[in-house]
């Protein structure tokens, strides 16, 4: 997951100031795809304009910790082309980054959302790069208010993760249907951060070409781990990370088997749901702790242990066709990024695991499989 960092973290030492270097390092670790912010609302409004973006947070190291300026095009196409040259596929998503002109507020209907994505995909298609797009995730962690505040304003009763509510389903089905009219061979979906994975079995989800589901140990059992750590309000409050430093690793080592089982149980249940619906899974944000960074007294060993367990468990279910090693697989997370052998070990496992044969019988899944 290179999210909005690919474009916003380009100052010296931020990790993406040299795309060639970052991509060469990615390939050297065995990865063959990235998931990035496409800024569709900004592309549609004025693709080549210099936009001023507000920071999402200043305690995390995804994106920029302060105001920043970006031009989406031609940078988006240049980046996709560099990926294509290295046989790295690109999954497009959007966190609907909020700029100082509040362009995101123009998204008031699913038709609006479809329209801005049509404009974005056409801008990529104009340079012959559409074949390098793996899939399009219309909104990150839909319908979360941090990433889709326009939806929350219209439907305040729909809470984070409740993609299965009627208003949400109507929106998703409408926007995807319109996009399929323009790009019938492109895989379309919304990504989710929802603890009740059985919802996949209770509803008709055939409008999704793939399940892009985010899974972390710390969220299981009603956020039990984070509650015991005392982690909350981690966007701008330094105290959140002070609590992680003090409590997270010791808590994990007190009963690692317990925390690991919370993770593996959820992965296995999610895999079971995917197989039941013959719909493949993709997970790009995962597996242990959500928020982490290079910081005094924070160590990566226990995080990597959980992430390796998550990857191996997901592979064992035969339900995933795209798997991230963590949501820290990015150059700015130096402590994670520099362990090249760890990355290679996991990517070897991922790339050598065959796709479940049953998914070849699902026409929607084939759209993704044939792009891999």
Automatic annotation (TrEMBL):
Gene3D superfamilies cross-referenced by the UniProt entry: Glycosidases
A matching Pfam family: Cellulase-like
SUPFAM superfamilies referenced in this protein's UniProt entry, alphabetically: (Trans)glycosidases
Superkingdom of source: Bacteria
Stated name of the protein: Cellulase
Organism: Prevotella sp. GTC17254
């Amino acid at each position: 997951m290179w999210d909005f960092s690919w474009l916003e973290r380009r100052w010296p030492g931020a990790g993406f100031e040299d795309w060639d270097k970052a991509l060469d390092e990615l390939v050297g670790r065995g990865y063959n795809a990235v998931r990035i912010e496409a800024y569709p609302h900004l592309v549609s409004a004025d693709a080549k304009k210099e936009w001023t973006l507000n920071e999402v947070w200043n305690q995390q190291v995804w994106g920029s910790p302060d105001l920043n300026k970006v031009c989406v095009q031609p940078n988006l196409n240049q980046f996709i082309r560099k990926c294509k040259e290295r046989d790295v596929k690109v999954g497009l998503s959007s966190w609907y980054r909020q700029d100082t002109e509040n362009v995101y507020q123009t998204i008031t209907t699913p038709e609006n959302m479809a329209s801005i994505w049509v404009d974005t995909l056409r801008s990529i298609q104009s340079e012959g790069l559409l074949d390098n797009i793996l899939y399009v995730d219309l909104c990150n962690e839909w319908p979360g208010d941090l990433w889709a505040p326009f939806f929350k304003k219209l439907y305040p009763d729909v809470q984070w993760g409740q993609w299965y509510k009627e208003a949400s389903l109507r929106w998703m089905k409408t926007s995807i249907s319109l996009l399929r009219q323009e790009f019938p061979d492109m895989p379309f979906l919304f990504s989710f951060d929802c603890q009740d994975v059985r919802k996949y079995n209770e509803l008709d989800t055939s409008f999704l070409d793939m399940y892009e589901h985010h899974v972390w140990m710390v969220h299981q059992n009603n956020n039990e781990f984070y509650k015991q750590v005392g982690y909350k309000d981690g966007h701008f409050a330094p105290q959140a990370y002070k609590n992680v430093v003090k409590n997270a690793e010791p808590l994990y080592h007190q009963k690692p088997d317990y925390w690991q089982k919370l993770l593996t149980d959820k992965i296995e249940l999610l895999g079971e749901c995917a197989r039941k619906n013959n719909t493949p899974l993709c997970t790009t944000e995962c597996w242990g702790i959500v928020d982490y960074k290079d910081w005094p007294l924070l160590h990566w060993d226990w995080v990597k242990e959980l992430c390796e367990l998550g990857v191996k468990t997901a592979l064992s279910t035969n339900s995933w066709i795209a798997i991230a090693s963590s949501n820290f697989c990015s150059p700015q997370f130096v402590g994670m990024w520099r362990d090249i052998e760890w990355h290679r070990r996991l990517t070897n496992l991922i790339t050598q695991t065959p796709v479940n044969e049953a998914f070849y019988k699902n026409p929607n899944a084939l759209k993704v499989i044939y792009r891999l």
